[in-house]
Design a protein that fits this description.
The protein has 373 residues and is α+β, with helices and mostly antiparallel strands. The protein has 6 helices and 18 strands. It starts with 50 loop residues before the first strand and ends in a 5-residue tail after the last strand. Bound molecules: pyridoxal-5'-phosphate and 2-OXO-4-methylpentanoic acid (COI).
Length: 373
């Protein structure tokens, strides 16, 4: 039987709700999905129905509101434009096998955003407000949550910017926290297929005592020329070395790096200038369960020639197996047949099975989105 909610009804925030809720007999409220080619989505921006915005003024965040506006009205002296007062997050929602919408490790992203805000002197978004914003914006865009089994997910991009005007270098007195969402496919267009990376020694992504360990836009601007150079030479992306000595692996432009040693150990760089990846943290837990004795330690660049497998990991990249790494005039090859290694595959399967509700959520990483009707 199919039921429809009345058009124009509102939830407790007086927000518009979905126009129809076909109910499929299982009691689960489902929305009519957007008509998209879900299995072939790229990783990129697309317009959805709503984004949500909260304003910070006089020391407090407001109630937030959903809007269909894709643009911002911004003061020309806003600190985000002049002095880089900007940070963001990236997380994903999935439709599980049972039809529920869940957000992966929402609490971790909330805490990381707060750390980023604090590091560049912006008011931290409280964890509760962060979760509320994510739930509200997902509920307002339910038809864009990719159906289970399509390989796509709903990418969630929270962002905080300094909007108050300053010309002297000091923090703004006003801020916006907003969250946009969009359905996406794989970050690297090959999906779960090995990619080639280029070690870029001539570009520093982040300074040792700088802001490389938080998710601020400036880090990406700093790394852009390395990424573009690597791409122009036919590589999927750049791999950065530590800035101080250029001796150790740091991370890939949009993701952390990990490798599997010849004796089946999961290793990943310990560095103060890389982003503490939530995906990597999750893989470390799964690797432990799989007996891979995970270890975070400095990884000398020469060790790339010893590894059995390598990978990039992140929300957007998920696990992207690395087929080869080029360092100066040498190449470390991990995949000769274009196929991912066994351990990368096992980790990928386990992580994605948990995200999709195909494997038990034994660490309580999934946050079901409370439905508003
Ligand atoms: N490193 C960088 C520079 C990133 O942009 C990302 C993506 O967020 C990651 C690592 C992976 O972090 P996470 O797994 O939390 O998405
Ligand atoms: C993410 O994985 O969420 C990121 O923010 C990486 C970004 C470069 C797409």
């Amino acid at each position: 039987m199919t039921k429809s909610a009345s058009i124009g009804s509102a939830n407790r925030y007086n927000e518009p709700v979905e126009k129809s809720f076909p109910q499929d007999g299982g009691g689960e409220v489902r929305v009519a999905k957007a008509n998209l080619d879900w299995a072939n989505l790229a990783f990129g921006y697309s317009k959805t129905d709503y984004n949500i915005r909260y304003f910070w003024k006089n020391g407090a965040w407001d109630q937030g509101r959903l809007t269909q506006d894709e643009t911002l009205d911004l003061h020309i002296a806003a600190t985000c434009l002049h002095y880089g007062q900007e940070c963001f997050e990236g997380l994903k929602a999935f439709e599980t096998r049972s039809g529920e919408t869940v957000v992966f490790r929402l609490d971790e992203n909330a805490r990381r955003l707060a750390r980023s805000c604090e590091k560049i002197h912006m008011p931290p978004v409280p964890e509760e407000l962060f979760c509320e914003a994510v739930y509200r914006v997902i509920n307002a865009n339910r038809r864009f949550v990719p159906p289970y089994g399509t390989g796509a997910s709903l990418y969630i991009r929270p962002i905080v910017i300094g909007t108050g005007p300053q010309i002297g270098v000091r923090p703004a007195t006003e801020y916006i926290f907003m969250v946009l969402v969009m359905p996406v496919g794989p970050y690297f267009k090959t999906g779960f297929k090995p990619v080639s990376l280029l070690i870029e020694e001539n570009v520093d992504r982040a300074a040792p005592l700088g802001v490389g360990d938080v998710k601020v836009g400036g880090n990406y601007a700093a790394g852009l020329r390395a990424s573009l150079d690597a791409k122009s030479k036919g590589y999927a992306d750049a791999l950065f070395l530590d800035t101080r000595e250029k001796k150790y692996i740091d991370e890939c432009a949009p993701a952390n790096f990990f490798a599997i040693t010849k004796d089946d150990q999961y290793v990943t760089p310990h560095s103060e200038s890389i982003l503490p990846s939530i995906t990597n943290k999750s893989l470390i837990t799964l690797a432990e369960d799989m007996g891979l004795r995970p270890q975070r330690r400095p990884i000398p660049v020469e060790e790339i020639f010893e590894f059995k497998e390598a990978g990039c990991c992140g929300t957007a990249a998920v696990i992207t197996p690395v087929g080869s790494i080029t360092y100066r005039d040498r190449k470390a090859v991990y995949s000769k047949d274009g196929q991912p290694g066994k351990i990368c595959t096992a980790l990928y399967n386990e992580l994605t099975a948990i995200q999709l509700g195909d494997a038990p959520d034994r660490y309580r990483w999934l946050f079901p989105v409370p439905q508003t009707k």
